[in-house]
Design brief:
Length: 479
């Protein structure tokens, strides 16, 4: 049915609130239209923010149509048409038809009905009908035996799993880049610092090895958290009871959804938990946050190690990527560590938002799903692109300022702790005073003072070479 004034442009649709004009060529319908009008917030649509979620709608609705058709709950021709429409949704044909802003209330019902309307219209079209005719009804056929309350949590799990692989790949590239630097710098001594003050020596390779292992631990945590996302509650219906579903529906829909998505999905142990408790989502987000915390530490350290370079620490060189100032010639800024620090804050901020959203479900439902979906996918997307970018554009091209590192080692007191077992704390303190007052290196101060070790051996160059070797100062004695 169309209106007189807009006969060539619009069609008229009806929902429980009344009639509305819908663009004639739109696959979405009246409920999606109302949702888009109710939330004119950011202008960002699902197809831009999380196209993976739209693909997940296609998987879920295809699995449901297959199961319901097989069980005789919807006509077989409707089941086949819906499945064909779902294949097109999976292929991203309808991404622009999702029109509701990513910031929305209502548990994601607007997005869900947007999907149901698109599939109902396209299935109707496949069967020879017209858009808006809904021979295949969005509620009665596409959504048979389903609810936003079980579809959306399942969609979120599928979406996060879809984006998990690229996150892990990016982190793996970053971890490998750090690991390679740990090998490259394995013999380069630098002053270790605690409380931002000179402490004892370590190698630059040991520091990069610590970074690499920290990222590896973060990856293990993320991967472990992802495994809990395989348990789905599709078939819970509105609350977990499975109201309006067939006795065999849960088994079939889980089987087909695993087949279509490619993930090893299984039925949730407790369907009431699946609709009301989002601890699995907060766990996964917290694991992403932990990677951000490790990233922040690494990014800050790289800025410190490269600072100056003439008036700061300057023990490493970051790759030159762009001029650093509009007024100071020759200045180059550590743009990649700066960017990654900001990314780390975003990950931590998103996790705080997700944690608040997960804990604020009431009674049998958590209505904060749109925010959880938006913030988690934002974290995953920027992680998937940025960590590997940091590796390829920055970490891989870091070089060491060996001359500066050697000068720092020779002209500081960081070597003195290594002398303690040989000359004692008191004598080592006297050496420190000599270094600081006379401007000598530790080695020259020891020789000038004519010190001997506890065994009466003169601490000459040969003896000092052994005591102050990389192996002696940066690892425990071999058993």
């Amino acid at each position: 049915m169309t209106t007189t004034m807009t006969e060539q442009t619009f069609r008229q649709e009806k929902d429980s609130l009344g009639f509305r004009d819908v663009p004639a060529k739109a696959y979405y319908g009246v409920q999606a239209l109302r949702g888009s009008e109710n939330f004119p917030i950011s202008g960002v649509k699902p197809g831009q923010a999380y196209p993976e979620a739209i693909r997940a709608y296609g998987w879920i609705k295809k699995a449901a149509a297959k199961a319901n058709g097989e069980l005789g709950l919807i006509p077989q021709e409707f089941s086949s048409a819906i499945m064909k429409a779902c294949d097109e949704m999976i292929a991203e044909k309808f991404n622009d038809e999702f029109i509701v802003d990513v910031y929305q209330g209502g548990t994601g019902t607007s997005n869900h009905m947007n999907a149901n309307e698109v599939l109902g219209n396209r299935a109707t079209e496949i069967l020879g009908g017209k858009l808006g005719e809904y021979k295949v009804n969005p509620n009665d056929h596409v959504n048979y035996g389903q609810s936003t309350n079980d579809v959306t949590p399942t969609l979120m799990r599928l979406t996060f799993l879809s984006m998990h692989g690229p996150v892990m790949e990016s982190l793996g590239i970053f971890e490998n880049a750090l690991r390679q630097k740990s090998v490259e710098f394995k013999d380069l001594l630098i002053p270790g610092r605690t409380h931002m003050q000179d402490a004892v020596p370590l190698t630059l390779g040991q520091q990069f090895g610590a970074y690499a292992d920290a990222i590896k631990d973060a990856m293990d945590n993320i991967d472990h958290a992802s495994k809990r996302l395989y348990s789905i509650g599709l078939g819970a219906s509105a609350l977990g009871t499975g109201l309006n579903t067939h006795a065999k529906y849960r088994d079939l829909v889980t089987k087909y959804l695993a087949e279509y998505s490619g993930f090893p999905l299984k039925k949730h142990n407790n369907y009431f938990q699946a609709t009301s408790s989002f601890g699995h989502f907060s766990d996964y987000s917290a694991a992403l946050r932990s990677a951000g915390i490790e990233l922040e530490k690494i990014a800050h350290d790289l800025r410190l190690y490269s600072m100056g370079p003439k008036t700061g620490i300057g023990e490493i060189n970051l790759p030159t990527k762009q001029p650093g100032s509009s007024i100071m010639p020759g200045k180059v800024n550590p743009v990649y560590p700066e960017f990654m620090s900001q990314l780390a804050y975003i990950l931590q901020g998103n996790d705080t938002t997700i944690a608040l959203a997960c804990q604020n479900g009431q009674l049998q439902l958590n209505v904060m799903m749109p925010t959880i979906l938006l913030k988690m996918t934002e974290s995953q997307r920027i992680m998937a692109s940025s960590f590997k970018l940091f590796a390829t554009e920055c970490i891989n091209d870091i070089t060491a300022n060996e001359a500066i590192a050697k000068d720092r080692m020779d002209n500081s007191c960081v070597l003195l702790t290594a002398l303690n077992p040989h000359i004692g704390y008191s004598a080592a303190s006297d050496v420190a005073k000599k270094v600081l007052t006379d401007g000598l290196t530790v080695r020259d101060a020891v020789k000038t003072m004519g010190l001997k070790d506890y065994d009466g051996n003169l601490l000459d160059d040969a003896r000092l070479d052994i005591i102050l070797s990389v192996e002696a100062m940066t690892a425990p004695p071999k058993a």
